[in-house]
Specification:
The protein contains 8 helices and 10 strands. By secondary structure, it is an alpha+beta fold.
Length: 249
């Protein structure tokens, strides 16, 4: 299992997020904090973590409490979750697991995130987005949906919340059940090299060079991509295909 991923810290260490490779695989990304003279930490490293790696695609970074980087990150985590006095500490998605909770909660939480399409290292600190910044760019998202999909209400709610939080977000929604939506969906799927078996699946998100499909279309995953692409100007997905295929203007 691959254990190394990239961490990017912005705005005086207030935001932490990651983007790994092999995006077609379900990944569970974690920050793990250990300390010396900790029997549970030893048990975790020697037995629990190796066993979990045989079952799941885990990506993680290990920190020890005495390291400077660990101290900085733990301060940010405690701002979000309150004082933490037991180890190990494991952060994945929006969940913090600590101490002997690793025996009862860790594998269950991993399985829950795997069922949602995986998870990235989370935002540790909410960023105020009400004011648009002159050094940020608009993020263009093409959202393909089907009203009959079981995910329709959930993803619509996610997008409504994200649009309120990120004023620079521009979303174009296409209903795959309409002729216009079907044409746009097929053109985007072809341009982004999706497998033919995925053409009819919903929901789908296209942004920059990235695609999210079905359960991958969730609040955390979309949020990560917004933060990624607001740093550089990107052509909207529907504009990328307009010259070649011109399905919708």
């Amino acid at each position: 299992m691959k254990r190394v991923f990239f961490l990017i810290i912005l705005l005086s260490s207030s935001v932490l997020f990651c983007f790994g490779e092999e995006d077609d695989m379900i990944k569970i990304q974690m920050l793990i904090f250990l300390t010396d003279d900790c029997a549970i930490c030893d048990d975790f490293i020697s037995f629990i973590l190796p066993d979990l790696e045989t079952k799941h695609n885990l990506e993680y970074t290990l920190y020890y409490e005495f390291e400077d980087n660990a101290k900085t990150l733990l301060k940010e985590i405690e701002k979000e979750f309150g004082k933490i006095e037991v180890f190990p500490i494991i952060l994945m998605g929006s969940v913090l697991i600590k101490g002997d909770e690793i025996y009862s909660k860790l594998e269950t939480t991993i399985e829950e995130y795997a069922g949602l399409g995986g998870c990235c290292v989370p935002l540790l600190f909410e960023v105020e987005e009400k004011q648009e910044s002159s050094d940020k760019f608009h993020v263009h998202i093409a959202y393909i949906y089907g009203k009959n999909s079981t995910e329709f209400k959930r993803t619509n709610s996610n997008f409504n919340e994200l649009e309120e939080k990120y004023p620079l977000l521009i979303i174009k929604k296409f209903n795959i059940e309409t002729d216009e939506g079907k044409l746009m969906n097929n053109a985007l799927c072809k341009f982004y090299h999706l497998a033919e078996k995925d053409y009819k699946k919903t929901p789908k998100v296209f942004v920059g060079d990235d695609t999210l499909l079905e359960t991958q279309v969730n609040f955390d995953s979309i949020k990560m991509l917004i933060i990624k692409y607001r740093e550089n100007e990107e052509t909207a997905p529907w504009e990328k295909i307009s010259k070649e295929m011109n399905p919708v203007k």
